[in-house]
Design goal:
177 residues, alpha/beta, globular
Length: 177
């Protein structure tokens, strides 16, 4: 992606759901921000710790919108909390405005079953507490009506709604600069 040097730079970090809303967020922020995305499904928080410096690169970021959670279903609460704290410490060093995206709910009728539903609720509670402690904005879509049945992903309209919401969160962060 080629940046317009007159516009702020935004980085999206997250799982396959963030891949789904990246284009919609770019469209919604066209002419307002250069929207980049980490070049892979970022996976669990352990992967984030390993690759965060690569994803951040050498450039300046104005806003970083991030999420880790769906791939942390089996991560212990203590490890998840510790990893989020480490990721936040690294992101804060960039000087960017930081936005946390709550993890997509897992319907109980997915292949992973009710245990995954409970694990994600727990991860979101941990993340909400940590983000509030750090004063980090939380983007919490809770859009179950546009989520595919028996799946953590969204239909086309859902990704458009998510992209629009992500764009609104980013615009609000940019206005605070």
């Amino acid at each position: 992606m080629k940046d317009d040097p007159k516009l702020p730079r935004v980085l999206l970090i997250g799982d396959s759901v963030s891949r789904g809303y990246t284009l919609a967020a770019r469209e919604a922020l066209a002419g307002k921000a250069n929207v980049h995305r980490a070049p892979e499904n970022c996976g669990p928080s352990a992967n984030g710790l390993k690759k965060l410096d690569v994803w951040l690169g050498g450039g300046k970021w104005d806003v970083i919108h991030f999420n880790f959670g769906i791939h942390d279903r089996a991560t212990t609460p203590a490890d998840y909390e510790d990893r989020l704290e480490q990721i936040i410490a690294r992101l804060e060093k960039t000087g960017a405005k930081i936005i946390w995206a709550s993890t997509t709910p897992v319907p109980p009728d997915t292949k992973d079953g009710p245990a995954a539903t409970t694990a994600i609720i727990e991860k979101n509670e941990i993340a909400d507490r940590i983000m509030q402690q750090h004063g980090i904005a939380i983007d919490d879509p809770r859009l179950a009506e546009v989520q595919n049945p028996k799946d953590v992903h969204f239909n086309g309209g859902g990704y458009k709604l998510l992209g629009g919401q992500v764009a609104e969160s980013i615009e609000a962060a940019l206005k605070k600069q």
